[in-house]
Amino acid sequence: MTELPAGGPAPFSGFGLGLRPDHYAEVLRRDAVADFFEVISENFMVDGGRPLNLLDRVRERYPLALHGVSMSLGGKSLDPDYLRRLKALSDRVRPLWLSDHLCWTGSGGINSHDLLPLPLTQEALERVAANIHHAQEVLEQPLLIENPSSYITYPEDSLTEWQFLTQLCARTGCGLLLDVNNIYVSAHNHGFDARAYLDGIPFDRVRQIHLAGHTVGDGLLIDTHDQPVPEGVWSLYAETVKRCDTVAVMIERDDDIPPLDDLLAELAVARRLAVPELA
Q: At the top level of its lineage, which domain of life is listed (predicted)?
């Protein structure tokens, strides 16, 4: 059995961005744009060609984190080919860490391309923990697990999401990627106190924070990642970062991508809130 570090990947302190095609050329042209970049793993899980060439060039200049969207940790079992290709990418990039979501994404070989919510039950906890153990064995490193945004709950739920995540950390040695926007969205949608969520999280396991925007729907907040970080999320982030020791903070934007300098201005806000002496 592979011996994995206790408590998740090694801590890293810095402020980064999600690497998106709109900014590839500028990131490679400019110096010291950010402390690190995060890339969507599935976009680079290929055998060769331009995507990997680009990633190699960025990796020469910046630390990278790999963020997955379809491992489907809540599914019945993990796809061995997916894990094989992710392991090959990880071996090539040697990322700060690998992360994915507390969710399932499909069944029977069908990928829904959505991050589907899990029932928060002991049965689901056992299944997710087993899948995390298996993934970490294959990948030879601990994972970071991200809290999702959600819009429904299940009648059989017996745990809060923060209790579920806390038990996953204890059972598997994984770390956490804490998405502050997702906490804010889910708290609004389900009527719980976002600060109670923070009170229940083991912050010694938090290695990364995501910041993003959302859209106001008909009675719900929708995690669209196509808006600037709103004031409510900034306020919750300020509470969150007080509880962290060494952590990586990232602005996540997936649609309606603005100029790079706009995102860097948001990242400067994140830095000032985390390090008040810079204000």
A: Bacteria
**Domain-by-domain residue ranges, the chain?**
14-278
| CB-neighbour burial class of residue 207 (10 A; exposed 0-12, middle 13-18, buried 19+) | buried
pTM listed for this prediction: 0.94
> Which residues of the chain carry a pLDDT beneath 50?
1, 112
Residue 50 has what pLDDT?
A: 92
Point out which residues pair with 208 in neighbouring strands: 177, 248
Rounded CA gap, 150 and 164, in Å? Answer: 14
Predicted local confidence at residue 1, as pLDDT: 43
DSSP one-letter string for the chain: -----TTSSPP--EEEEE--GGGHHHHHHSSS--SEEEEEGGGG-SSSSHHHHHHHHHHTTS-EEEE-S---TTSSS--HHHHHHHHHHHHHH--S-EEEESSEEEETTEEEEEEEPPP-SHHHHHHHHHHHHHHHHHHTSPEEEEPPP-S---TT--S-HHHHHHHHHHHH--EEEEEHHHHHHHHHHHT--HHHHHHHS-GGGEEEEEE---EE-SSSEE--S-SPPPHHHHHHHHHHHTT-SS-EEEE---SS---HHHHHHHHHHHHHHHSGGG-
From the list 99, 103, 179, 89, the residue with the least C-alpha distance to 135 is 99
165 contacts: CB under 8 Å, gap ≥ 6: 102, 145, 147, 176, 201
Q: Which residues pair with 206 in a beta bridge?
A: 176
pLDDT of residue 111: 57
3-class SS string, 145-157: EECCCCCCCCCCC
Q: Which CATH superfamily is domain 14-278 in?
A: Divalent-metal-dependent TIM barrel enzymes (3.20.20.150)
